[in-house]
């Protein structure tokens, strides 16, 4: 001990010689007899220790004994930063949490809330990048601000940009990843895939038609389904399906064959045309309206479905309005669904929906589709990441009391992990109401997390973590989204403008 202390420049005080004890002294000189001592007040009695008793809730315990710390989460998955409640490193592994039932996590979905510029997208990018080391692939379902481009480039993947004047075209009726190696497939597998393709297309057309506020009833569905089978050559039993486009579908609905009218059980051709007019007009908007030239030809971008990340930049669609962005997001959603349907066991994916309200505003079908994806994530090994500013964003998807709003409210409960970055006091109250936050947790969101970027309260099932995300120098370059503001001051040209 003296050696150890001297290494640090101190010296132990010298030991005093122990007092000399008389060896002969008998410690039990006066023994007490079996009846004890006699005399007044000479006895002994047990008295309880003078303890003060306090009663408090577990929330107040932390205030009275602030040094009590909970256990952190297991150190598995993407290490993101420091958890100030446990004092340890914080790692996120939603699939691991689900499999091990950590803190009652029952699904790997994550939802991020935070005021603009708090670092939501940055945290998600770091999460995706660090999970790649564990074999996860990332699909960005529509990059509406082109902010995932630097991340893609860093991973040697060229992001695709869609917009007027650009060569990229997206065919909503593309086979997507299901089209890979189609001809070499055994017959049963080809039939299985064909069934998946047709049901996905029908869902997609329902969404596209719904985005124009036109109902898509069962009769229209039968007509469209028959036309799709006909045009692809599936009805004739061809082993190779032809790629078709929205204009071809539109044309076929405008000039129905006698067999089609008959198969849909319309009285005559005119009856068919009258009944399917709203659907035709909604599809026509994609062919002849201001969206013409974007979604009406075969896909020209070759998306590598096996790359570590895939992203489609949509910021050039912004001037065309939310509808154009919404249509692109609907198509991408459909491709994303196909990709996860095709995934083999162990093929782990992170699907990112940044600015997700843009897609949800398209209507009930878009909300239903997101709802279905979140419910399926447990089965297809997919971490669905939804990013929004505040919970009430979700409630703007429809009229109060509508089905869309009811489903949107439920979406919160389909995400076992909720990440709450800094918010104003008012939104803090809203969060507390919807998520049942304790006053202390609400304060972390409105005070501590709002004081710096990248800070968040992580609700992992029933576990709470107070996390500061730590960026490496590489992350700083990949997550910086302030270039549009800082470029004029420094005279630098933002990277995204260069690309344009
Ligand atoms: N963990 C972090 N630590 C420090 N700064 C960060 C962190 N994450 C992001 N930032 C910085 O904060 C800025 C805004 O980040 P980001 O774009 O991710 O915010 P956001 O919440 O997604 O904003 P928006 O709602 O506008 O999409 C970025 O320029 C980035 O440099
Ligand atoms: Mg963002």
UniProtKB/TrEMBL annotation:
Record's protein name: ATP-binding protein
Annotated InterPro entries: P-loop_NTPase
């Amino acid at each position: 001990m003296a050696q150890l202390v001297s290494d640090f420049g101190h010296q132990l005080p010298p030991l005093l010689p122990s007092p000399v004890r008389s060896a002969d002294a008998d410690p039990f000189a006066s023994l007490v007899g079996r009846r004890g001592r006699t005399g007044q007040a000479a006895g002994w009695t047990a008295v309880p220790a003078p303890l003060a008793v306090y009663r408090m809730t577990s929330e107040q315990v932390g205030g009275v004994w602030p040094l009590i710390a909970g256990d952190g989460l297991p150190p598995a998955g993407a290490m993101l930063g420091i958890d100030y409640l446990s004092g340890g490193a914080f790692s996120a592994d939603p699939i691991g949490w689900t499999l091990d039932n950590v803190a009652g996590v029952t699904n790997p979905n994550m939802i991020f809330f935070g005021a603009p510029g708090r670092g939501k997208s940055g945290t998600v990018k770091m999460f995706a990048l660090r999970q790649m080391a564990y074999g996860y692939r990332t699909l960005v379902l529509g990059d509406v601000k082109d902010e995932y481009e630097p991340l893609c480039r860093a991973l040697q993947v060229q992001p695709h940009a869609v917009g007027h004047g650009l060569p990229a075209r997206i065919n909503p009726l593309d086979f997507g990843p299901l089209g890979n190696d189609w001809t070499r497939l055994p017959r049963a597998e080809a039939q299985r895939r064909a069934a998946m393709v047709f049901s996905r297309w029908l869902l997609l057309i329902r969404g596209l038609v719904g985005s124009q506020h036109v109902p898509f009833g069962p009769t229209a569905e039968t007509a469209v389904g028959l036309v799709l089978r006909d045009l692809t050559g599936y009805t004739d039993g061809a082993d190779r399906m032809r790629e078709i486009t929205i204009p071809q579908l539109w044309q076929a609905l405008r000039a129905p064959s006698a067999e089609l009218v008959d198969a849909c059980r319309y009285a005559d051709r005119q009856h068919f045309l009258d009944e399917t007019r709203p659907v035709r007009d909604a599809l026509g908007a994609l062919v002849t309206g201001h969206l013409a030239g974007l979604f009406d030809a075969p896909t020209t971008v070759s998306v590598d479905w096996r790359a570590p990340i895939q992203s489609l930049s949509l910021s050039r669609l912004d001037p065309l309005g939310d509808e154009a962005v919404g249509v692109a997001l609907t198509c991408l959603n459909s491709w994303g669904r196909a990709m996860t349907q095709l995934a083999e066991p162990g093929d782990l994916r992170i699907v990112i929906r940044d600015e997700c309200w843009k897609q949800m505003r398209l209507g009930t079908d878009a909300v239903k589709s997101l709802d279905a994806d979140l419910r399926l994530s447990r089965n297809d090994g997919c971490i669905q990441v939804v990013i929004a500013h505040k919970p009430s964003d979700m409630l703007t998807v429809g009229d109060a009391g509508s089905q869309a709003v009811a489903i949107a409210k439920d979406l919160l409960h389909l995400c076992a992990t909720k990440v709450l970055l800094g918010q104003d006091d008012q939104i803090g109250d809203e969060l507390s109401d919807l998520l049942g936050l304790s006053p202390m947790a609400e304060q972390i969101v409105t005070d501590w997390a709002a004081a710096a970027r990248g800070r968040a309260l992580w609700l992992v099932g029933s576990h709470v973590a107070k996390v500061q995300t730590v960026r490496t120098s590489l992350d700083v370059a990949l997550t910086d989204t302030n270039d549009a503001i800082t470029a004029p001051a420094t005279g630098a040209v933002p990277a995204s403008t260069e690309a344009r």
